[in-house]
Amino acid sequence: MLRIALRTLRFRKGAFVATFLAMTFGAVLVAACAGLMETGIRGEVPAQRLAAARFVVTGSQTWAMPKENPADPEEDGEAAYLPERVRLSGELVGEVARVPGVAAAVGEVSVPVLAGEHRVEGRGWSSAALTPVSLVAGQVPATGEVVLGQGTGATLGERVELVVRGSAETFTVSGLVPGQAVFFADDQVARLAGHAGTVDLIGVLVEPGADPAAVSGGIGELLPGRNATLLSGDERGLAEFAGAEKAGENLIVLSAVFGGLATMVMLFVVSTTLGLSIQQRQRELALLRAIGTTPGQLRRMVVGETLFMAVFAAGAGLALGGLFGAWLFDRLAGNGIVPTAMTYHSGWVPMVVASGAVLAGSFLGALIAGRKAARTRPTEALADAAIQRRWLSWVRVLLAVLAFGGGIALFIVTIAVMTGPIAASTAGPSVMLWAIALALVSPGVTKVALAVLRWPVRAFTGTAGHLATLSARTRAVRMAAVVTPIMLATGVATANIYLQTTSTAVANAAFADNLRADLVLTSRTGIQGDVLDEVRSVPGVTAASEFATSTVFVAKPHDPALSEDGWTVQGVTGAAATETTAVTPSSGSLTDLTGDTVALPAAHAATLGKDVGDTITVLMGDRAEVPVRIVALYPAPEGFETLLMPASLVAGHTTSGLPTQIMIRTGDPAAATAALAPVLAGHPGLAVVDRDALVAGHAKDQELGAWINYLMAGMIIAYTAISVVNSLVMATTARRREFGLQRLTGSTRGQLLRMMTVEAGMATVIGVALGTLVAGMTLMPFTLVTDGSLLPKGPIEVYLGVVGAAALLTFGSTMVATWASLRTRPVEAAVAPA
């Protein structure tokens, strides 16, 4: 049977090409996402600055979150990533240096430095051996001296002013090295960094001939109980590139979400394309049944030829998928989503996943597509060969009920359980469930829609509309196969784009609502404490508050609402917090935010069973556990809860150790800006921006985060657009016989083109309407939870653009295919194979 199917392939090249393309592009998407996931799982970041260190000891950036019942061994534990640098005790450097086989242990200390317009990390000269870096000219730095990179344009002996952690200091250039590096004397960098007695990491140089395994084991014996991790090989880069580990985790989540959606879309598209292809071969399959072919033989033939195509499509998809995945990864790295030093990997696992998805999807689609033809009696098959009218079956009804039930369940769960931005997590499966449900009942919906459109179409389009409505009503089942991909493309595009625009708009609105400052003083290296007093003394300044942000975790008591993302914390100056933030306490006072204190959202405090005056233990971003007293409770919108702490407490546990902003309230921003000029002149590296600029900067950051979602969603939208073109070209080309007969009975090419134009218009209207319904049922629960509105946030031009693109694809594909079909002479077309 497979041999027969392959021999007839040359008579149905269009259907073969369309199905092959659907499988190939599906494999490309799945392989690309699987490659990104493998890259995130491996998380390989080859060392650059630490290339000469055989081993690196660094603070553990993960924290085992407390269990609800610590005594329960079956309760799964979760780990959270700590956002600030976890430092090590300086005593550990000497202990590591004494391990047999260790040539040297270098405790590296880094400090943010502003050299001209360049922000770099300054380090002690001993850290140069970890790269290694050699002097191009000059000598190693002593106290009061500095070694600079040649890229700074400095010369030997020159006196240069550097901004170190918010303070301007003058140094003598003692040496030059390549690049933009800054090296201080080892005894000076600890003072400049502001955290004496600790180091950022320890680079280990091994003696020649020493056994690396023995050295590693010796160092490993020193680390238990010290929250330290030993890194080797490409893992050393995790210590060098802050956030690389978290970026790898984010890449895993991102690729999993979009890979899952791409797989579902691929299964949907391949099944739809195969179904349309089998419909067009109904005459061929009916004749095979009439001459004695059994249902089992027919099913095996359809499955066999489908898998035959799928094997070659998977091979082509894998070849292109690796290249496409690498291109996607470069876009992510170029926009700062992942470190540029991270290595992209696409090994055998993505190949297996993509191949399995294509083969499984094709097999399932072939079973579904060939089921009706295989089970129909021969006489009925011959009668139905020209026009398919029956479409309803108990299997279709059951699947439709399940899909509608799943969509409704997600709708209810999103509204009842989800809060804030996490409500978007149900959008991917929701859009596919609604699309599948409507696709299963699309023949019935299409018949109803055609009945509604019949009279308006005829009234406005005359004879062409009369012919089009007759043809569409007769071929309603096959027209439904054309409507389905239009619905999918419209629904997926509208839902994904508006999901992101709504998320961005809500986040920007929350930021703007919480911002009460008229001006903001910013620094790229941190702001020293005396600056706040100077700002407060400036005429026209009514209130000023230091500002620092981080992430914290409630360690005690057990926090049932705690996730691995922790709680966002804002550090403020208590006396001015009421004027520079939008927080209005329901109990307690923000002026008491001094020392080790915290202000909590009221709902969060209720979850913890705590009130004003009680104490909780908070794990700061650098792993330090701090008991804090609750001094205020305040209402906060769900999903945007933020803790408030004194700025000095929050900043002291960040990597830089200093606040990065000062929020300023003033009655006259322009006058206050001018009055702040002496403060800026006395502290190089400071800048002042107004409220609008700060809001715009936050919006730009949100857009950068949204960009990746647009990129990944754009892949899937493009794939669904290809399926629209495939389906329309297949459906139109298969009507050559019909067109030939119409021309033999007197219809002109112009009349047929006008008829198909009207049909394309009806298919567009029905497909767009169903796609809008899919997007609406996906977006509505999300917008209700995040914004309290039924409509998404975003310009109407987005929806108009989606509709316009769907119409352009539909009309373009239909008319081009019709024009190509009409080039055949009527007599030849009338006897051509379907």
UniProtKB/TrEMBL annotation:
Residues 257-376, 711-823 form the ABC3 transporter permease C-terminal domain. It comes from the Bacteria. It holds the Pfam family FtsX. PROSITE patterns: PROKAR_LIPOPROTEIN. Keywords: Cell membrane, Membrane, Transmembrane, Transmembrane helix. It is found in: Cell membrane. The chain crosses the membrane at residues 251-276, 307-328, 348-369, 397-419, 431-455, 476-499, 707-731, 752-778, 798-820. It is a multi-pass membrane protein. InterPro entries: ABC3_permease_C, Membrane_comp_ABC_pdt. Its main location: membrane. Coiled coil: none annotated. This is ABC transporter permease.
